[in-house]
Amino acid sequence: MKIIVTSLFVQDQDKALEFYSEKLGFVKKHDIPMGKHRWITLVSPDALEGTELLLEPNEHPAAKEFQKKIFADGIPATMFGVADIQKEYERLLENGVRFTMEPTKMGPVTIAVFDDTCGNLIQIAQQ
User: Fold this and answer.
1) Among 25, 26, 29, 90, which is 20 to 30 Å from 14 by CA?
2) Of the candidates 17, 79, 76, 13, which has an alpha carbon nearest to the alpha carbon of residue 42?
3) Which residues form the signal peptide (predicted)?
4) Own/partner pairs for 58-63, CB < 8 Å, 24+ apart?
């Protein structure tokens, strides 16, 4: 068994698709109409057949409340691994990404946190 798709609640699928593809550099894998919304997934450009990130509409009241509360408490919704966190931090800053935590060493890992403009804090980590 392996993880093939992981979901991330977003306030606006179009805005999220633009942010995750243009600012972060993920590659759109699927964009399938599903009634009012779409099945939109992205993958890492380094792993085109790897785990897909699903941009899930936060329309359900529980999803909306969950997203709002973890954001308010400063809890990242998910984490992405990077090879060189300082280099990635600088690249993302140049792309206009707003960080809430600069790269910070935490034991054997270094982490940074940014706002995805779609209702989430996202953590990047270098092990």
Assistant:
1) 90
2) 17
3) none
4) 58/9, 58/10, 58/11, 58/119, 63/9
Q: Map out the domains of the chain as residue ranges.
A: 5-126
Residues 41, 34: Cα–Cα separation, whole Å: 13
Please tell me whether residue 62 adopts helix, strand or coil conformation.
helix
Pick among 3.30.110.170, 3.10.180.10, 3.10.20.30, 3.30.70.360: CATH of 5-126 = 3.10.180.10
What is d(CA 33, CA 49) in angstroms, rounded to the nearest whole number? Answer: 21
Bridge partner list, 39: 32
64-86 confidence digits (pLDDT tens): 999 999 999 999 999 999 999 99
